[in-house]
């Protein structure tokens, strides 16, 4: 990515940023939290039980199906000083005992190991106590440290491992980042602690949620309280208010259309009808409304024309629910002021609606009475009424996964009830129903007037047919997760509770925010000053299609979830931000990537699986350069903040920070040099100077300053920003700058060996890169350094050209060619194979160029 220039400086063109993309094969551990993270309650699957409602719930297709639950009802009104018990299950219990395939065992044997299979992830607290004893016993010299061979014996003995030499060696190398050949107990514990902490932070970062703030706020056509917000299959929001006004909004909160229902009915009335609730019947293109006149009305959702209604309800339908239960079958449910759950079972929905449409009209709408519906019109309907709560029903819903109705009220002793639809049917009650049905038919034939009030008589479910949850101050709203198999409730006390649906006992308590139910961690809290939504909340609804939360007050507000668009949905993106650097580590067989977001990630090379990651390596500044030390155990990164940092990158521990004296200019390139048994870290950047830091274990300062600048560098060095640096044994160093100059240095004396100035090719006539003379990458062809008759240095640039230089005799250009014939791209990265016979180049338009037979380039 082009660096962010400081104020007053010219913005220069730079290479396009590529993303390293990888495909991660499916794994049994894909959705499991890392072993180093704290264990949570839920593992992503429904809780198994010997008697689940899904197996024992009642059938909805026809009456007469048997249901039997164990009766469970316990108080769960917590005392003021009583803390709810947390039940935890480890997400990785039993991994060691899980049978492994040959491929899995092969991955275990690799030094890097696979994510979730490394030895350090199998070490628990008990193992640590045992390891400490083995450490102390094995330390026969009294130095407090162990060698590699002794460490292998300690790990095998304490963990009971037989053949894990490569893994144990890899663990030893990760801990011994300074390559001293011995490790201490304190170093071992520090490594484990830091790795666990970084994995926990990484896990939590992946689950971060954010909304676009402030909320989008629009005025509404509603003059009364909005009762409910719902969404259609295409993501359109639907809102309805008490006066019958219905509005449709798109995902950008633009009002698409609005209409006032029941307008014709209210013309002839002294008092207008009031709406109590609304649900969508999308399969049949209908809107279902409950009214204060004890009616359930059906409207066409496309034309808003009245279709039919069920009238003569015994009580006012406060809350409605609709659920299809099969092909052309459904449940229409409503809760009333008496605390009853009323269920209309429809076995042929299309035919039934057409039959109701043909009934005589009342106030301009076809009307059928509940009495006729309850007495089984043509065998297509059935009516059931359960007495469930001792207060108004505030919410009810049917869930096919557990084949049950969940309802709630403000009454503490019946706050939340999970119950069957039909109830248990025993032989005696079944015979009684058959007898009553025969009597009714005989009476109809004889013209005897029936006692029509029997259908409104309420019944109570058997204790085995329902589970009652007692909650302090009752429950106003709830939801059920089929994936986690839990129920979430909210009430007047502003506390969110999570329940096990099979055991009426509280599991977790939350305050209001956005929470991760698996980890019991708060993911997001939106403050009023941020969202700027004013007024009392009347209704809210989360739209899974558009990933946005609609909130109704006196205005309509929308909080849209921040979702970063993916250019290729079928490709896994390695980083959320552009990838700046990428290196392969042969010691651990891992790939390390760094991003503009200052994140460092480790990947298993053979499988592409993530191994480890840590973030904020350079704070909020991007990582712009990266190199390994000579052992491959430490990572050196350079950032836009002008600093270099040395890492034990296997656990995210910053070992040392390298800072320039009085400059925070961006670091553009870094190299690691060994010369005369001394080790150095050399960096270049926008300060136009060469900064050299010694790398020695004798310097115990965490912050280290560079050595004195070379005199030749200060007087005759680069006059423009340095973009690349490369080193070659025994003592050569090459640097390139934005103005196209290449300087080769003698590192022993600090003097300039030669100046190389690239010239524009004679046949170059492209103007797309005019003004860009930068040389962004240098590579020494090390096997050729001692051969003075061929090219030893390759430079990418200027203007998309590749130059091959002989650095001897003052510098001679041996060859040059265009990397891109159309002149619209330049080379941004280069690499050569070990014997320098092939040159690999990546350009700014995403092309990979391979130059073969490099031996012929003289």
UniProtKB/TrEMBL annotation:
Residues 46-59 have a biased composition (Low complexity). Residues 60-70 have a biased composition (Polar residues). Coiled coil: none annotated. It comes from the Eukaryota. Residues 40-86 are annotated as: Disordered. It comes from Saccoglossus kowalevskii. PANTHER family: WD40 REPEAT DOMAIN 95. This is WD repeat-containing protein on Y chromosome-like. The keyword Repeat applies. WD repeats lie at residues 475-500, 572-613, 616-657, 715-747. Keywords: Repeat, WD repeat. Residues 126-161 form the EF-hand domain. The keyword Repeat applies. Residues 72-85 have a biased composition (Basic and acidic residues). SUPFAM superfamilies: EF-hand (SSF47473), Quinoprotein alcohol dehydrogenase-like (SSF50998), WD40 repeat-like (SSF50978).
């Amino acid at each position: 990515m082009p660096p962010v220039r400081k104020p007053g400086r010219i913005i220069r063109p730079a290479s396009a940023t590529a993303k390293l993309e990888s495909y991660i094969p499916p794994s049994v551990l894909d959705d499991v939290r890392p072993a180093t993270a704290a264990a949570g309650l839920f593992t992503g699957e429904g809780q198994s039980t010997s008697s689940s409602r899904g197996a024992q719930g009642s059938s909805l297709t026809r009456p007469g199906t048997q249901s039997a639950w164990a009766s469970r009802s316990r108080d769960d009104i917590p005392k003021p000083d009583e803390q709810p018990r947390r039940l935890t299950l480890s997400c990785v219990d039993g991994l060691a005992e899980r049978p492994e395939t040959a491929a899995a065992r092969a991955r275990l044997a690799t030094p890097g190991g696979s994510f979730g299979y490394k030895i350090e992830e199998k070490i628990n607290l008990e193992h640590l106590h045992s390891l400490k004893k083995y450490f102390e016993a094995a330390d026969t010299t009294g130095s407090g440290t162990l060698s590699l061979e002794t460490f292998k014996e300690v790990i095998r003995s304490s963990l009971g491992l037989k053949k894990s030499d490569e893994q144990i060696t890899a663990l030893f190398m990760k801990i011994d980042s300074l390559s001293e050949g011995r490790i201490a107990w304190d170093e071992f514990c520090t490594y484990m602690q830091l790795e666990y902490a970084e994995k926990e932070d990484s896990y939590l970062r992946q689950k971060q949620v954010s909304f676009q703030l402030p909320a989008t706020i629009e005025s509404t056509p509603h003059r009364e309280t909005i009762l409910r917000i719902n969404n259609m299959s295409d993501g359109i929001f639907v809102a309805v208010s008490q006066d019958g006004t219905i509005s449709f909004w798109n995902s950008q909160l633009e009002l698409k259309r609005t209409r006032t229902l029941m307008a014709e009915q209210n013309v002839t009335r002294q008092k207008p009808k009031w709406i109590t609730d609304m649900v969508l019947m999308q399969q049949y293109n209908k809107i279902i409304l409950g009214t204060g006149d004890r009616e359930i009305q059906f409207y066409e959702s496309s034309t808003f024309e009245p279709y039919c209604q069920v009238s003569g309800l015994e009580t006012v339908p406060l809350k409605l629910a609709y659920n299809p239960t099969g092909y052309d079958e459904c449940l229409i449910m409503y809760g009333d002021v008496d605390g009853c759950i009323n269920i209309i079972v429809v076995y042929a929905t299309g035919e039934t609606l057409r039959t109701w449409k043909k009934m005589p009209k009342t106030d301009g709408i076809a009307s059928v009475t509940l009495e006729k519906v309850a007495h089984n019109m043509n065998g297509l309907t059935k009516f059931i009424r359960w007495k469930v709560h001792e207060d108004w029903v505030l919410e009810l819903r049917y869930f096919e996964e557990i084949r049950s109705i969940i309802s709630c009220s403000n009454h503490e002793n019946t706050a939340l009830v999970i119950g069957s639809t039909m109830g248990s049917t025993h032989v005696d009650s079944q015979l009684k129903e058959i007898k009553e049905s025969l009597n009714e038919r005989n009476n109809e034939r004889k013209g005897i007037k029936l006692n029509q009030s029997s259908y409104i008589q309420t019944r109570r479910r058997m204790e085995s047919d329902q589970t009652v949850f007692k909650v302090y101050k009752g429950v106003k709203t709830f939801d059920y997760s089929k994936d986690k198999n839990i129920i979430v409730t909210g009430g007047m006390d502003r506390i969110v509770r999570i329940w096990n649906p099979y055991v009426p006992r509280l599991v977790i308590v939350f305050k209001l925010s956005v929470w991760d139910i698996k980890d019991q961690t708060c993911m997001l809290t939106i403050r009023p000053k941020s969202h700027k939504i004013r007024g009392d909340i009347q209704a809210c609804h989360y739209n899974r299609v558009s990933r946005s939360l609609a909130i109704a007050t006196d205005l309509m507000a929308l909080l849209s979830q921040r979702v970063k668009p993916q250019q290729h949905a079928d490709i896994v993106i390695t980083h959320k931000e552009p990838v700046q650097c990428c290196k392969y580590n042969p010691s651990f067989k891992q790939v390390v990537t760094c991003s503009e977001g200052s994140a460092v990630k480790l990947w298993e090379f053979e499988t592409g699986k993530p191994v480890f990651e840590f973030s904020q390596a350079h704070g909020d500044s991007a990582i712009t350069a990266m190199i390994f030390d000579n052992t491959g155990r430490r990572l050196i990164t350079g950032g836009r903040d002008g600093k270099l940092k040395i890492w034990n990158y296997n656990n995210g521990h910053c070992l040392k920070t390298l800072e320039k004296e009085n400059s925070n200019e961006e670091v553009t390139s870094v190299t690691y040099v060994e010369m005369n048994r001394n080790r150095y870290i050399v960096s270049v950047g926008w300060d136009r100077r060469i900064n050299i830091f010694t790398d020695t274990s004798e310097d115990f300062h965490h912050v280290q300053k560079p050595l004195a600048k070379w005199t030749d560098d200060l007087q005759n060095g680069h006059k423009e920003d340095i973009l690349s640096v490369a080193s070659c044994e025994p003592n050569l160093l090459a640097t390139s700058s934005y103005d196209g100059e290449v300087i080769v240095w003698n590192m022993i004396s600090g003097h300039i060996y030669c100046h190389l100035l690239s010239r524009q090719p004679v046949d170059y006539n492209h103007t797309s890169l005019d003004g860009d003379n930068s040389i962004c990458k240098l590579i020494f062809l090390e096997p050729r350094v001692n051969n003075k008759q061929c090219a030893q240095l390759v430079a990418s640039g200027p203007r998309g050209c590749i130059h091959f230089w002989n650095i001897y005799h003052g510098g001679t250009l041996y060859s040059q060619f265009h990397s891109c014939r159309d002149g619209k791209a330049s080379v941004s990265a280069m690499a050569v194979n070990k014997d320098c016979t092939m040159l690999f180049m990546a350009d700014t338009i995403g092309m990979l160029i391979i130059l073969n037979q490099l031996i012929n380039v003289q």
